[in-house]
């Protein structure tokens, strides 16, 4: 059992014992203090800490079974997954598409950099505003079993309001490398600030950066949820912030997108096993469900034991075409008083691609943290996604044991 699971078990035992003794508890969010001034620590300190943790994790992963469905790995290895790269149309010309969702685009639209917005996902801050405007979503654990969601948006100027915006963790900055996005956040951990600084990440910070009038507090959220859950912005303000910082708004010639897509005329169904209701316990306090809707061909997302995840502006439930579950090693950083996590974002691992009611085992790999992730089927063939929204769940390898693909509500 890794440090992450041991800590969760210890805390649960302590709560049970204290409850039996008649004690009462007030839940304290473990993240409030993260919105602090940027530290003066150097990159080398972070490198030493991360290297030690990740080296141990890589050694453990070499001998561990990452997925519980051995039949899928051995007896059903990617048959029927053959495809060709649909980046060219029938005339042989290169297809121009949106790098986030695969939709047809102009050259100017394709060249535009997206934004990546750090979204609060603790239960008492819900719902999030502007959620359904996202194209790609990354969810990963933070301290205390909560999760953060990083939402990538291509047409960000159209956002009427988005938030609440929350603080950064360093591994989300690694995910940004897949898309060359401009990062929007509100504070962050020391390791996150270090990485932003030495990597030179273009970012807009609502806590420790002067960006005139870009961020504001929602009064209703301020009084009902608390200061740390009230920071908002709009698409217009984001565009003004980018202009104020003079960030490049277009990809340079060296950019290579991480995600590849089928043509819009293709609705690919992998010849894999059933995945009509995907359920997993992604952390000690977070459950995630993706329920397939045959009429729309998309997955409706639920969290926190069956709560629909909806957009606070429209009441529309989040629905995505593609679900990626990527297994990695997540553990407590030894000696970190705040309970921060180390998340392995380089090397390789396994996972699932889920679309159209089916699932297929895949692998992910990254040569380094600044390289885009490579997604492939088990036979090494490159993964193409169906056009549409994509939700990426980055979870600990132990979460594989909780996965159910034909779950039924109690």
Structure described in brief:
This protein is 20% helix and 24% strand.
Give structural notes.
There is one protein chain. The chain has 410 residues and is of the alpha+beta class. The chain has 8 helices and 21 strands. Strands 1, 2, 3, 5, 6, 9, 15, 18, 19, 20 and 21 form an 11-stranded mixed β-sheet that branches. Strands 10, 11, 12, 13 and 14 form a 5-stranded antiparallel β-sheet that branches. Strands 4-8-7 form a 3-stranded antiparallel β-sheet. The two termini are 29 Å apart.
Question: What distance lies between the first and last C-alpha atoms, to the nearest angstrom?
Answer: 29 Å
Main pleated-sheet profile: 11 strands, mixed
- Kindly name the structural category: alpha+beta
List the total number of helices. Answer: 8
- Averaging pLDDT over every residue, what do you get? 81
- The share of residues in extended strands comes to 15-25%
Residues in helices, as a percent range: 10-25%
Q: Which value, in Å, is the CA radius of gyration? A: 21 Å
Low-confidence stretches: 1-66, 68-86
What is the helix/strand order? Answer: HHHHEEEEHEHEEHEHEEEEEEEEEEEEE
Q: Total strand count, please?
A: 21
Q: What is the general shape?
A: globular
List the helices and strands and how they pair.
Elements: H1 3-20, H2 43-63, H3 70-74, H4 107-111, E1 115-119, E2 136-141, E3 147-153, E4 162-163, H5 170-176, E5 182-185, H6 190-199, E6 203-205, E7 216-217, H7 219-224, E8 231-233, H8 235-245, E9 273-274, E10 277-281, E11 287-293, E12 298-303, E13 307-308, E14 319-320, E15 322-328, E16 330-332, E17 341-343, E18 347-355, E19 358-366, E20 374-377, E21 390-396
Parallel strand pairs: 1-5, 2-21, 5-6, 15-21
Antiparallel strand pairs: 1-3, 2-3, 4-8, 7-8, 9-19, 10-11, 11-12, 12-13, 12-14, 15-18, 16-17, 18-19, 19-20
